[in-house]
Amino acid sequence: MMLRPQPSSLAYVPFVSVENMMRLVNAIGVEPFIAGLAEYIEADFRRWPEFDKTPRVASHSPEGVIELMPTADAENYGFKYVNGHPKNMREGYQTVTAFGVLSSVGNGYPLLLSEMTLLTALRTAATSALVGRYLAPEGAEVMAMIGNGAQCEFQALAFRALCGITRLRLHDIDPAATRKAARNLRAQGFEIVECATAQAAVEGAQIITTCTADKQYATILSDNMVGAGVHLNAIGGDCPGKTELHADILRRAEIFVEYPPQTRIEGEIQQLAPDHPVTELWQVMRGEAPGRRDAKQITLFDSVGFAIEDFSALRFVQARIKGTEFFEPLDMLADPDDPRDLYGMLQRAK
Ligand code: NAD
């Protein structure tokens, strides 16, 4: 009996390692990858009612959080395991790491196991820029980016690919992070201004992205820093007790969210009354609710990251690895000749 399934076997699960994800993304190109991913995300948002939905299951500790993010449609089930530990970066680890699984609803077998650290950065950026297409002011060219860590470059590239942003104003409390992002993004052809303060970064920006990591109610932006007509893309406030915007900004903004039961616990709006009005993005994408209404409005995407975006990302990767070598067959399913003879299989392997 064969112990190691070969690629022809039905019992292997395609596994996309970090190395293969990098090969896949580089083969496609970061911006085309994000654009393709955004199409999958938008298509899934447009069929939102078809999904099983639940706020993610979070296990909190003083240092961070570990979360499981499940969802399913009639055909596939998906989940992501992801952490958020802002102190990791100071110790030489990623703040956010992740992996995920896509399965068949029909027989429950896993169909794909993938790294999702890179994929999370790509899908978060794709979602932000997709939302930007509905909410950013017309003709926006300049984006302020506050927080220049792991997510930063992906956000910039996504906003160029989907919204035409070419000029960036960068700020981070750690100047080394800004230097890193500036170097990476200048190499990609962006016009960059490195800013010593958040106040300087937002000057003249039509879009403001906040992607900082700090496990507290932080005030990255105060009310006076946000002028009329700006679109805010706030991705770093994504946990109870972890926010980036002063509550007064929220009161002036039209707020757009992924899944209210999760965002009310985790997003910027945890600072507001539980019945404060918000608009669900899937309704905007279906044309059932307005996006940006006028040039003066302040719009806010209170992003926390929802399971359907990961589901879309896994489906996108599943489609794109077909016919490539960017995966390995993983022996993670028992496959006895007689399904009831699991013990016999073990004995024959002696
Ligand atoms: P990271 O640790 O790599 O980078 C965070 C950066 O923020 C660091 O460079 C840090 O110096 C900077 N920073 C911290 N406090 C700041 C402040 N007051 N002003 C300016 N800069 C400040 O983290 P990352 O992987 O880039 O993630 C950024 C944030 O995005 C995290 O909070 C993470 O939880 C969140 N995130 C959200 C989603 C989502 O879907 N909404 C997805 C992934 C990550």
Note down, in words, how this protein is organized.
- The chain is α/β, with parallel strands linked by helices and 350 residues long.
- It folds into two domains: 12-118 and 308-334, ornithine cyclodeaminase, domain 1, CATH 3.30.1780.10; 128-305, NAD(P)-binding Rossmann-like Domain (Rossmann fold, 3-Layer(aba) Sandwich).
- 33% of the residues lie in helices and 23% in strands.
- The chain has eleven helices and 17 strands.
- The strands form three sheets. Strands 9-8-7-10-12-16-14-15 form an eight-stranded parallel β-sheet. Strands 2-3-4-5-6-1-17 form a seven-stranded mixed β-sheet. The chain has a two-stranded parallel sheet with strand order 11-13.
- It is globular and about 70 Å long.
- It starts with 12 loop residues before the first strand and ends with a helix.
- The structure holds nicotinamide-adenine-dinucleotide.
- Nicotinamide-adenine-dinucleotide is lined by residues 84, 86, 89, 95-96, 120, 124, 146-151, 172-174, 177, 211-214, 218, 220, 235-236, 238, 303-305.
Could you give a quick summary of the protein structure above?
The chain is an alpha/beta fold and 350 residues long.
